[in-house]
Design goal:
four-stranded antiparallel sheet; disordered N terminus; Outer membrane efflux proteins (OEP); about 450 residues
């Protein structure tokens, strides 16, 4: 048989548990992605492709892998993102601790004069619980959920920084390789033009050629000298960029020139997936979603502010009028002081707080949708590059072959007296321009592979 006092205590316990579990956080629903279901040019029956591979498997070149490893260990942007994540995690732990009472060891003593001319003393020591808020309406729980989502967002932010770092190091290293190749090409071209200029000046001095030929040879030589200075500057800028990305001086062995048109593949193949896969692959989208979840939880805290706050202050210890009597029998006791505060008039503060939280959620929704749209555009751009850069490269290779043959024939015809020297210089100029375009096209194709891998969410896996 259950006694009435026991039943009453049980009912009060259940009621307290129900109230403690109360939450005003709106039910979270992921917004619909504001992008088409398929990328441009993707067949309707396309299926999701697996690209969740570590960057170590994507990057085939050993030197580039070592360079990326150095950057992950020393890059300051990544280090800042990691430290920020640790700070936000500590803030979440603080919010979580707010749900539990804080016990303190308290000791006090006072002496004051009495009306009779003497003094009275009071001493106490014990455990004290100060203003512990009993979270009946879920305000603290909502703040804890918001802090948890912010911590998860900071973790995704670190992954996004790592993704960007891996891609940027690879792209900058490729740019350096291309500029080294272009520098060597420019040096060879300048040597050829210097030789042509000496020959032309000699022929001009002997009256065998016109001043027009001489000036054209001088112009082409000066253009090659300007191109050489430009390539030297671009190479220096790439080296400086890599030093910043790596966070230390880059070993020369990792910067050795690799032929831009080498048959050895630098990267693995990157299959494209469906736009919906970006929600789970890209760290920046997951970061935006966690920030949206945090903003949604903040609404719960703002709603709970309209309801009473119930706090409890309590103490357990010993009190005595004499210091020596603190721990004697009969001096022990406890105090219990609950308090409930119900907002009646706050000049619209709570209503403004709720409006601010709701606006914050709307902002987070817009930021989440924007992150998806940016990701969709980046993947679509990379796919467009993959579809056309290969054709462009093959066309330029054919053009470079034709221009090289044209230059050879023009020089042969000039030596046999069939063609003018202007034909030789024009063929030389065209060949140099096509060779430059060919190197830049090869660079664009390789950088596009990196961009597609990054856009699809690869690059952050440990």
């Amino acid at each position: 048989m259950i006694h009435l006092p026991t039943l009453r205590r049980s009912a009060l316990t259940v009621a307290a548990l129900v109230l403690t579990g109360c939450s005003f956080i709106p039910i979270y629903e992921r917004p619909v992605a504001p992008v088409p279901m398929l990328f441009p040019g993707q067949p309707a029956n396309a299926v999701a492709a697996e690209v969740e591979v570590p960057w170590q498997q994507f990057v085939a070149d050993a030197r580039l892998r070592e360079l990326i490893t150095l950057s992950l260990a020393n890059n300051r942007d990544l280090r800042l993102a990691t430290l920020n994540m640790e700070q936000v995690r500590a803030q979440f732990q603080i919010r979580r601790a707010d749900q539990f009472p804080t016990l303190n060891l308290a000791a006090s003593g006072s002496r004051q004069p009495t009306a009779s001319g003497g003094t009275s003393s009071s001493y106490s020591v014990g455990l004290a619980l100060s203003s512990w808020e009993i979270d009946f309406f879920g305000r603290i729980a909502s703040l804890k959920e918001a802090a948890l989502a912010q911590y998860l967002a900071s973790e995704e932010a670190r992954r996004a920084v790592q993704t960007s770092l891996v891609a940027t190091v690879a792209s900058t290293w490729l740019s350096l390789q291309a500029n080294e190749e272009l520098l060597a090409l420019t040096q060879r071209t300048l040597k050829t033009r210097d030789d042509s200029l000496r020959l032309t000046r000699l022929r001009f001095d002997n009256g065998a050629t016109s001043a027009l030929d001489l000036r054209l040879a001088e112009s082409l030589t000066a253009a090659a000298q300007a191109a050489l200075a430009q390539q030297q500057r671009l190479r220096a800028l790439d080296r400086n960029a890599l030093t910043l990305l790596v966070g230390q001086a880059v070993p020369e062995a990792l910067l050795a020139t690799l032929p831009i048109a080498s048959e050895q593949p630098l990267f693995g193949a990157v299959p494209a997936g469906l736009p919906s896969d970006l929600l789970t692959r890209r760290a920046d989208i997951r970061q935006a979603e966690q920030q949206l979840i945090a903003a949604n939880a903040s609404i719960g805290a703002a709603r709970a502010a309209f309801f009473p706050r119930i706090s409890l202050t309590a103490g357990l210890g010993s009190a005595s009028s004499e210091l020596s009597g603190l721990f004697k029998g009969g001096s022990w006791g406890f105090t219990l002081a609950p308090q409930a505060l119900l907002p009646i008039y706050d000049a619209g503060r709570n209503q403004a707080g709720l409006a601010s939280a709701q606006a914050g959620r709307d902002i987070a929704v817009a930021q989440y949708e924007r992150a998806i749209q940016i990701a969709f555009r980046e993947v679509a751009d990379a796919l467009a590059g993959r579809a056309t850069l290969g054709d462009e490269l093959r066309a330029l290779q054919a053009q470079a072959t034709a221009e090289a043959d044209r230059f050879r024939l023009a020089e042969l015809r000039y030596r046999n007296g069939v063609a003018s020297f202007l034909d030789v210089l024009d063929a030389q100029r065209s060949l140099f321009a096509v060779q430059q375009s060919l190197a830049l096209s090869q660079l664009a194709l390789q950088q596009n592979q990196v961009a597609l891998y990054r856009a699809l969410g690869g690059g952050w896996q440990e």
